[in-house]
C-alpha cells in the first residue's frame, strides 16, 4: 500500500501591515489632533472635553480611556509642541555653530529663517503659546519654565558665545536674550496675523532687525530671499 503524502504544514495567518497603527493608537492620535487644533484656535479654557470628543468622532468615555482628563490631554499637546520645537532648534543651532565663525551674518539669518519656516509649517505651535500669553491655561504655569525657558537660554547662549568669539569684535549686541524674545514674539504674532501672506517681506524685515540688533549690520541688497 503506497505511503500517504506528508501533511502540508498549517498555513500561517496573514501578517499585519507593519505600518498600520493599532486601533487604540489611531484613536489616541485622533484625539490629540482634535485637541491640538481646538486648543490652538479656542484655548484650553475655551475648549471642552465634549467638543474634543465630537471633533475626534469618539465618545467621551473613549477619550477618557485613551488620554485621561482634559489637563492630561493639554500636557500631551504642549509636550509634543515642545519636542517638535526642541528638535528643529537643536538642528538649527548645530548649523549656526558651524557657520558663525566664518560668516556670522549668514549664520544669524539662517537661524532666523529656520525658526520662521518652522512656525509657518506648524502654525498651531505659535497659536498654543500665544494663547498662554493671554492667560489661558493659567494652572499650567510650570510649562514656561520647563519648555520655553530652556530653549530661550540655549539660543541666547549659543548666539552670544559665537558673537563674543568673533576675532574683530565687530558684533556688540546690547541684549541677546531680548533679541531672541523679539524674534519669538514677532514670528508668533506674524503667523497669526492678517498679513501672514507677506512672508518674503516679513522675512527681510526680521533678518534686518536681528542683524542690526546684534551689531552685524544689515543683509546685502542682493541677499536672496526664500519663502
Note the topology.
Blueprint lengths: L22 H20 L6 H8 L3 H8 L2 H30 L4 H18 L2 H10 L8 H23 L11 H16 L7 H15 L14
Sheet of most strands: none
Question: Which range best describes the helical content: under 10%, 10-25%, 25-40%, 40-55%, 55-70% or over 70%?
Answer: 55-70%
Low-confidence stretches: 1-21
Name the shape in a single word.
Answer: elongated
Strand content: under 5%
| Mean of residue pLDDT values | 87
Number of helices: 9
Number of strands: 0
Radius of gyration (Å): 24 Å
Order of helices and strands: HHHHHHHHH
End-to-end CA span = 82 Å
Structural class: mainly alpha
In short:
The protein is mostly helical and 227 residues long.
Textual characterization of the structure:
The protein has 227 residues and is mainly α. It contains 9 helices and no strands. The protein has helices at residues 23-42, 49-56, 60-67, 70-99, 104-121, 124-133, 142-164, 176-191, 199-213. The longest helix has 30 residues, at 70-99. The termini are far apart. Mean pLDDT is 87; it is low at 1-21.
Which features would summarize this protein structure in a list?
single chain; 227 residues; mainly alpha; 65% helix; 0% strand; disordered N terminus
Amino acid at each position: 500500500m503506497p505511503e500517504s503524502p506528508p501533511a502540508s504544514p498549517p498555513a500561517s495567518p496573514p501578517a499585519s501591515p507593519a505600518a498600520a497603527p493599532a486601533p487604540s493608537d489611531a484613536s489616541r492620535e485622533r484625539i490629540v489632533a482634535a485637541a491640538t487644533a481646538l486648543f490652538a484656535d479656542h484655548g484650553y479654557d475655551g475648549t471642552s472635553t465634549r467638543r474634543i470628543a465630537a471633533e475626534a468622532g469618539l465618545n467621551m468615555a473613549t477619550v477618557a480611556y485613551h488620554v485621561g482628563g482634559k489637563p492630561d490631554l493639554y500636557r500631551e499637546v504642549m509636550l509634543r509642541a515642545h519636542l517638535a520645537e526642541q528638535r528643529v532648534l537643536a538642528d538649527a543651532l548645530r548649523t549656526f555653530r558651524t557657520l558663525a565663525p566664518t560668516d556670522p551674518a549668514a549664520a544669524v539669518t539662517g537661524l532666523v529663517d529656520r525658526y520662521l519656516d518652522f512656525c509657518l509649517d506648524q502654525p498651531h505651535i505659535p497659536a498654543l503659546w500665544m494663547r498662554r500669553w493671554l492667560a489661558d491655561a493659567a494652572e499650567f504655569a510650570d510649562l514656561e519654565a520647563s519648555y520655553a525657558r530652556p530653549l530661550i537660554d540655549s539660543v541666547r547662549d549659543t548666539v552670544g558665545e559665537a558673537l563674543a568669539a568673533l576675532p574683530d569684535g565687530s558684533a556688540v549686541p546690547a541684549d541677546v536674550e531680548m533679541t531672541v524674545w523679539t524674534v519669538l514674539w514677532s514670528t508668533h504674532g506674524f503667523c497669526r496675523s492678517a498679513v501672514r501672506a507677506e512672508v518674503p517681506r516679513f522675512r527681510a524685515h526680521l533678518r534686518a532687525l536681528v542683524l542690526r540688533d546684534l551689531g552685524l549690520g544689515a543683509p546685502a541688497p542682493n541677499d536672496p530671499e526664500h519663502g
